[in-house]
Amino acid sequence: QVQLVESGGGLVQPGGSLRLSCAASGTISSINVMGWYRQAPGKQRESVATITNTGSTNYADSVKGRFTISRDNAKNTVYLQMNNLKPEDTAVYYCEYLATFRSWGQGTQVTVSS
User: Fold this and answer.
1) b or e along 7-45 (b: 16 or more beta carbons within 10 Å of the residue's beta carbon)?
2) How many whole angstroms separate alpha carbon 51 and alpha carbon 33?
3) 108-112 and 10-12: which strand pairing?
4) In what order do the strands lie in the sheet with 67-72?
5) Whether 58 contacts 14, CB under 8 Å
6) What does the pLDDT read at residue 30?
7) What is the structure's pLDDT at 36?
8) Is the pLDDT of residue 112 over 90?
């Protein structure tokens, strides 16, 4: 089992920045993919960005050029740097771990509003 704990969400004005963190603990495979998903009210959960253990990344078109995903394998932590935030980025952001099984974090709220 892998446990994920997210942090870093909050309220920010449009154009602002936030950095989310997700710390993984437990039985962590050396080969895995970690990622960030989000779910806005009334909408399905969608992928935001993913990163493999070798550092290959993938982004949703809506966040390309604004968000950056990174990871520290020594700390089993994945980060999401979010710049130039827009109101449509408002959602609960979830961290995901994927290897032979999938685990989810509890989610952290990001609200972009003036």
Assistant:
1) ebbeebeeeeebebbbbbeeebeeebbbbbbbeeeeeee
2) 6
3) parallel
4) 2-7, 18-26, 77-82, 67-72
5) no
6) 87
7) 98
8) yes
- Classify residue 87 by burial, with Cβ atoms within 10 Å: 0-12, 13-18, 19+: exposed
Per residue in 68-96, pLDDT tens? 999 999 999 999 999 999 999 999 999 99
The DSSP line for 25-75 is: EES--SS-EEEEEEE-TTS--EEEEEEETT--EEE-TTTTTTEEEEEETTT
87 three-state secondary structure:
helix
- Integer Cα distance of 65 and 9 in angstroms: 20
Residue 65: left if φ>0, alpha if ψ -120 to 50, beta else—which one? left
